[in-house]
């Protein structure tokens, strides 16, 4: 819920920059983050932990679009992600049910 609003603000801020500058900024931001993840993956491979490596490979995509401010918050959120997703799912289901009931009422009258 809250995250969607924040991304919308960030997207609006990004729109003010010219497309060339935006592309440059995105390329720069990904390269540093990806380099770190690649180094970590290489270290894992040397130790012979293949399974953990596979798990981390899926996480790289999430690591791409992060600013300096949100990085600290995001690190802590990784631990809570499973719990949060479960809570969010229940919220979405509840909301869907509520909208269905209200629609039915409107249709009846």
Automatic annotation (TrEMBL):
Region (Disordered): 39-58
Name of protein: Uncharacterized protein
Naturally occurring in which organism (per UniProt): Nesidiocoris tenuis
Lineage summary: Eukaryota, Metazoa, Ecdysozoa, Arthropoda, Hexapoda
